[in-house]
Amino acid sequence: MIYPALRVYLTQEVTNTVWPQYFVGFMVATHFMFMAYILFAEGSFPDRWRRVRDDLHAKVGSDNPPSDFPLMRKLQWTVDISWNTRMVGWVQKPRNSTPRHPHPPYLRREFLQKTFLKLIVNAAIADLATIITALSPPFDYRIHDPADGPEAYLAAIPLLHRVPYVLAWAIGTGASISTAHNAVALLCVGLGRSSPALWPDIWGSWGDAYTVRKFWGCVPS
């Protein structure tokens, strides 16, 4: 994570704009801190962190810890734990504080149909939110001095008029993330590589945000 971050920051064509810098910094810091927490908490390779679908007992009476997995399977395990901060599909998942999974009889075809409809809706919302922001002259970087920072863009908009643009940006960002989540879910479940139970709604319901634990596990973070 550190090496690609340095390569990106040393590439002037990328670092000339704020968004790539923010994105790279956010991704590196998030995954680095999460993995550092796991490694420091365990003191060694975290063999007790296990996915529900892992075959931990290759033979009767024997244990098959993740550190003994084949290389490609170990890489998949590592990527999963690095990106899956809410531990969906892991035995360490917090109980009663994560999005509800589809019921066991949830049909694959029904899941694919509903997820496809969500993909269309989320893509439309993301596109509409982007258009709302793009049509606003204050957010057009071409009419500002290249040295201007974000404060110059916001200063061009009256205070009360900023709220719709901020909401549009937040809604568009959430819809974009949902679109990507829906697309990957369709691909994995459609190809038979994942169960629908491993793809709960990424945001959950705001009605569940009545405690800090529910807010973290069930609704947008």
Jot down its keywords.
about 220 residues, mainly alpha
The oligomeric state is: single chain
Helix-strand category: mainly alpha
Given as residue ranges, the uncertain stretches (5+ residues, pLDDT < 50) are none
Distance between the termini: 23 Å
Q: Tell me the strand percentage band.
A: under 5%
Please characterize this protein's 3D structure.
With 221 residues, the chain is mostly helical. The chain has a domain of 116 residues. Helix content is 55%, strand content 0%. The model has no long low-confidence stretch (mean pLDDT 76).
Write the layout of secondary structure elements.
Layout: H1 2-9, H2 12-15, H3 18-42, H4 71-83, H5 108-134, H6 150-155, H7 159-190, H8 212-218
Short description:
This protein has 221 residues and is mainly α. It is 55% helix and 0% strand. The chain contains eight helices and no strands.
